[in-house]
Amino acid sequence: MKGRWAKLAFTGALLALLAGCSSKPTDRGQQYKDGKLHQPLALVNQPNAKGRPVNGKDFGDQVGQIKFASSSLYSRQSSTYSAVESWLMAGADTRQLRQFGLDAFQMEGVDNYGNVQFTGYYTPVVQARYTRQGEFQYPIYRMPPRSKGRKLPSRAQIYSGAIDERYIAGYSNSLIDNFMMDVQGSGYVDYGDGRPLTFFGYAGKNGWGYHSIGKELIDRGEVKREDMSMQAIRKWAEEHSATDVRELLETNPSFVFFKPENFAPVRGASAVPLVAKASVAADRALLPPGTVLLAEVPLLDQKGKFNGRYEMRLMVALDVGGAIKGQHFDIYQGIGTDAGHMAGFYNHYGRVWVLRSAPGAGQLLFSNQQKSNGMLLSGNAL
Fold first, then answer.
1. What is the pLDDT along the chain (382 residues), one digit of tens a residue?
2. Nearest Cα to 382, choosing from 366, 361, 353, 368?
3. E strand intervals along 99-249
4. Among 281, 289, 339, which Cα is nearest to 118's?
5. Which uninterrupted H or E stretch holds 43?
6. Strand 102-107, strand 347-357: pairing
7. Using CA atoms, how far apart are residues 158 and 360, in angstroms rounded to an integer?
8. Dihedral sign of CA atoms 232, 246, 339, 185 in order
9. Are 142 and 258 in contact (CB under 8 A)?
């Protein structure tokens, strides 16, 4: 009898454990193999991860861009870059990071189980003309003068012509394309005259708060929360009138202005040209520019669903984003339609380790008091 009750108790405990595990979502790449983590960045030295980075060449190219574009940024992180490159050349075994003078700090993720949020962004290519003609009716604006402490007109006011025409850099054939370039913060414009594409870099905002049109569509019941993506927004726009599209976009009063540049590469906030899938936008309050990340990134199918597999990538924090805070990275996907396709789907989770050259190891550890206050060490700690 005692054995029977013990067996029943064990079975009940096992079922409870399985039920507890099954209640944790895994549909977007979430993992729980490391248990609960108790600090934003924890020194682990040997990441509990299999596989080697798939983008060693791209990482090397990204480091080369840093060295060429910003000697000061490169010099601050050069010891880490050199150590990572030596580790890559020796086979990139995660069990041997410490042998190459590297410390690995695991990020606790948005849920304290190591699940760091990944979204994606890209550089769109917008069709435009220098003058308003035919289907090309939607202005793209340069940054107008702005008085200190004062807002520029809202999006709705700008759509109604509140900005002087002198600041129009061209007219596109799609208001939603303009908005997507606005959200991405930069893009290339094809004026259709056979000349090289013109890079439109971020020049500034109008000073109004940002309101998500994706959330707006969810709240209206137009798109299901689980189906929301840039593709879903585009599909909605294709199925509605130009008036409906404009009304939706006007719910977001924030507006981005651009600076046209000829023969310019895509650059992040660090003024460094970006290499696709080897650079990310990150929160500078947590990680300073140039920080190296070893990331286990979930793989998606062509419909944006997690396919159950991951790949290891080395990436560098070189950009920022208004919505990129804390344990969240925006992965730069590249230029054009295919890059936009994947960027629009990404809202998934993976594990991330911050790599740093070993001298000074331990400076990223946080005191209980700092964590309880929600405070992070300054960027000088990395």
1. 434 334 334 334 433 333 344 479 999 999 999 999 999 999 998 899 889 999 999 999 999 999 999 999 999 999 999 999 999 999 999 999 999 999 999 999 999 999 999 999 999 999 999 999 999 999 999 999 988 888 999 999 999 999 999 999 999 999 999 999 999 889 999 999 999 999 999 999 999 999 999 999 999 999 998 888 888 999 999 999 999 999 999 999 999 999 999 999 999 999 999 999 999 999 999 999 999 999 999 999 988 899 999 999 999 999 998 789 999 999 999 999 999 999 999 999 999 999 999 864 434 433 333 443 333 333 333 3
2. 361
3. 102-107, 116-123, 125-129, 138-141, 168-172, 187-190, 198-205
4. 281
5. strand 41-43
6. antiparallel
7. 51
8. negative
9. yes
Q: Which of 126, 121, 135 is nearest to 169 (CA)?
A: 126
E strand or H helix at 177: helix 175-184
User: Is 377 within 8 Å of 132 (Cβ atoms)?
Assistant: no
Question: Is residue 361 classed exposed, middle or buried when 0-12, 13-18 and 19+ CB atoms within 10 A define those classes?
Answer: middle
Report whether 93 contacts 320 (CB < 8 A). Answer: no
* Residue the block writes with tokens 């984003």: 321
First to last CA, the chain: 60
Q: What is the Cβ-side half-sphere exposure of residue 23, based on CA atoms within 13 angstroms?
A: 6
Q: E strands of 184-323, at which residues?
A: 187-190, 198-205, 256-262, 279-281, 292-300, 306-319
DSSP classification of residue 133: B
> By CB neighbour count within 10 A (0-12 exposed, 13-18 middle, 19+ buried), where does 161 fall?
exposed
* Residue matched to tokens 């507890």: 20
Residues whose CB is less than 8 angstroms from the CB of residue 14 and which lie 6 or more positions away in sequence, other chains included: none
| Structure tokens that stand for 174 in this block | 């799609």
Residues contacting 41, CB < 8 A, separation 6+: 105, 106, 107, 108, 354, 364, 365, 366
Q: Which two tokens stand for residue 296?
A: 């286990």
**CA separation for the pair 142, 163 (Å, rounded):** 10
3-state SS record for 307-370 = EEEEEEEEEEEEECCCCCCCCEEEEEEEECHHHHHHHHHCEEEEEEEEEEECCCCCCCCCCHHH
